Amino acid sequence: MKRRSFITTTAAAALVPGELLRARAAEASGVPVTRKVFAHYMVAWPRGGKNAGPDQYVREMQDAMAAGIDGFALNCGGWSAFEPYYKRRVVAMYDAADRFDGAFTLFVSADGRAQDELEDIVRTVRERRAQLMVDGRPMLSAYALGGLEGTRAQSLLETAQRLRAYFVPHRFPSTGEREIAPDMAADVVERIGPADGYFYFGAAGAPSLLARSTRALAPALHNAGKAFMAPVTPYYRGLPRGTNYRAFETNGFAGMAEEWRAAIESHATWVQIVTWNDWAESTYVAPTGRARQPVVYDTRFGPILSHEGYLRASRYYIRWFKTGSPPPIVRDELFYFYRLSPAAQGEIHTNGPVAPNDAPPSMPQGPLLDRVFACVFLTHPARLTIGQDGREDHHPLPAGISFVDVPSLPGRPRFTLVRDGRVVLDRTGELPITEHDFSSLYGCYSGWATGTPSQ
User: Which superkingdom is the protein from (predicted)?
Assistant: First the structure.
């Protein structure tokens, strides 16, 4: 009885009552619910730390379900023979997800050396209650199947087929990470051969590039009778001491919204948010409890700025993707995004007293912008004012979704929404913008404010 109450409470947070009843009715009748949203979970770096157990994983799953996420794709860079903590953590995560009695599902995404152990992976998860099953087969995915060059991809495709897994791997096209145009989409279909579908791990790229790639891949895969797992990602910035020290401007939430629209309008089978918790490449959306956490999992990641604004703004698009129709906006909501220090090369005095310890990341697809970005959901027209350092920018906005950006100035930006002479939302950013503190390593901070439901 206690367990059933736990499941019902968590599921209700993700679905309004009518949708929850329809979902249960569909499950009872055996009708497959094909439009699902997952998040790419880095098993190497759980939010709860190196000793995280089922209770900590349950809390992460509850946070995901509250946003409408249906499950995690568990990225494993090893398994049992190599870095055996991966298998131990995956088993603990299945123990946690089993508490939801099928309401939150998992599947493994084999990366690196884990691809050597597909047989044991499938054997371990096949009978678990929380395992995602498609057409009666356990879902299995992979990142960079067969390595960057794909030299072992064919044998791995044959292994997955022999294991009767529903296999939806990522594999690099022959052009690598560049935009996937229609001719390259056809190449992808050919390269995945007998696989049941394709997962496009779109993170390291400008949003317009990722969106165009999604729009090219979807029809090619659909026409070949294969499932398509499309990506959406909040913001990418690698670490100075890593191999991927580069960054891509996403204009606050506008870039992620563009990727959501591409997945929705191209009728992708599923969406995978890339990622839930990659602290190294800053693509995480997992709530961390504070605007700025000094440490999450390991000090080498530096301070972790909240990305929860990306997750909360995505709720609207998650529901749109699942239902096929844009949901009504029932309350005013404001989401804001900014970096805490200058990013434009010309504004950083590299030999002055406020010089950063590291040069800015490479920006292969355009510069990072010193702007404050806002995404506003409005039930009725209103005026947004963004105040910074004595300057005010006023923007009359229509009902619906609007994107606004203004120059970034020192201090804590203040966001005010006024309708018919009445303030409906008033929020000041929790973290200040400075000209000298580069400790956030060009990360992007997000926050939000929510109004009461409209009458």
Answer: Bacteria
